[in-house]
Amino acid sequence: MGKLLLLDIDGTLLNSKKELPDSAFEALQKARANGHELAIATGRAPFMITSILEKLNIDTFITFNGQYIVHSGKVIHTEALDPAMLEEVVHFAEERDHPLVFMNSQKMISSIDYHPDIDESLKSLKFPHPVTERNFHLDNDIYQSLVFCTKEEEAQYHENFKDFQFVRWHRVSCDILPKGGSKASGIKKLIAGTGHSIEDTIAFGDGLNDLQMMQVAGYSVAMDNGHPETKGVASYITEHVDEDGLAKAFAHLGLI
Fold this sequence. Notes:
Layout lengths: L3 E4 L14 H12 L3 E5 L8 H7 L4 E3 L4 E4 L2 E5 L4 H13 L4 E4 L4 E3 L5 H8 L12 H4 L4 E4 L3 H10 L3 E7 L2 E6 L4 H12 L6 E5 L5 H6 L2 E4 L5 H6 L2 E2 L7 H8 L4
Parallel strand pairs: 1-2, 1-11, 2-3, 11-12, 12-13
Antiparallel strand pairs: 3-4, 4-5, 6-7, 6-8, 8-10, 9-10
């Protein structure tokens, strides 16, 4: 059995222009031909990665940082945020003028008509400001939410909502996840379906939400453009994503 290659998207598969480099595309196809299985491991929602799944012909993925997992096109694990606790966060955030975005597997909804922090952070993913529905989280399973605040303001959420974890992914935005939810826990659930052992996994990433994934995988590769903490735990640091870093890592590891 080949390796299970767990691929982050932003800053790993996609370069600084949010494009998939030709070198990465070719390396992925060669790795698959050599018997390795490709899987996406991302903080994004399933509806946000449709185009790259289709382009790469991938039907196995960990999304929402481990809250929604699909293997061979079939959903094998979901974990929604507790709606009562999420409602507490909503009230707390609204008192501080911190808007939220709610996401299920199909769409994202904003708690407010417009906010510049939502616009700034989602534009970095090439997504528009979402439509508004204040109580969307009360009637739908929410696998991940976003709260928009600065790094300094984030501490009060950690202090007041210990059953959730808050993972910063942007200057003005944090993911809200169930405590213990992560790409790392997602890997453990995924390999139960793929038949791989943890030693057979190789994680590729760059961000803080990749940190635990890289610690639990059998081997880990950080992009040179990655966060210092993520690079600090990686087994190997490859070149910048804009300098064919992913393809060079595949060659270094003998995957191609």
